[in-house]
Amino acid sequence: MKSLEGKQAQTIGLKDWGWPAVHASTATPTARGFAALSGRYWSVVIIGVFLGMGYLWFHSRVVEAGWRIKGLEQRADQLHGRISALRIERSRLESPAFIKARLKEFNLDLNVPRPEQIIRVRNSLESGTKNQTLFSSTRTSGTVFLTVAP
Fold first, then answer.
1. Within 10 A of 36 (CB to CB), how many other CB atoms are there?
2. Residue 118 pLDDT
3. Using CA atoms, how far apart are residues 140 and 118, in angstroms rounded to an integer?
4. 63-99 as b/e, with b when 16 or more CB fall inside 10 Å?
5. What's this model's pTM, rounded to 2 decimal places?
């Protein structure tokens, strides 16, 4: 019987894969060949289905990542625009004209400090020692401006 199956497989040009033999009493010679062929084809179909599902899953992940990247790029463009607008606003708020207008609005009179209001302290930070007199000097006559002399 094996020799007959082997002959049938050889006559149609296929290799004998060792599939279980079908009894000659219940099947015709074409049915035995079909059973051997259909087992192989089903395995190829199942592998193809799994590969197709894997491809679809992978492709959906790539498309989703593309959408996320596009959304993040749009968000980055929005933030760059906001940053430039905030820089313009900051430069406007730091302008001397705006500061003078706010001083007038709150009736504040700020002047350049007088020479007697300035205390010059020698910079000892370069030598590595900390100058304790820098923060301990106070005056009761008003505002004290400290400058560090080189």
1. 21
2. 83
3. 13
4. eeeeeeeeeeeeeeeeeeeeeeeeeeeeeeeeeeeee
5. 0.43
Quote the tokens at residue 132: 């304790």
CA atoms within 13 A on the CB side of 70: 6
Q: What is the pLDDT of residues 107-138, one digit of tens each?
A: 988 888 888 888 877 766 655 555 444 444 44
3 state SS for the chain: CHHHHHHHHHHCCCCCCCCCCCCCCCCCHHHHHHHHHHHHHHHHHHHHHHHHHHHHHHHHHHHHHHHHHHHHHHHHHHHHHHHHHHHHHHHHHHCHHHHHHHHHHCCCCCCCCCHHHEEEEECCCCCCCCCCHHHHCCCCCCCCEEEEEC
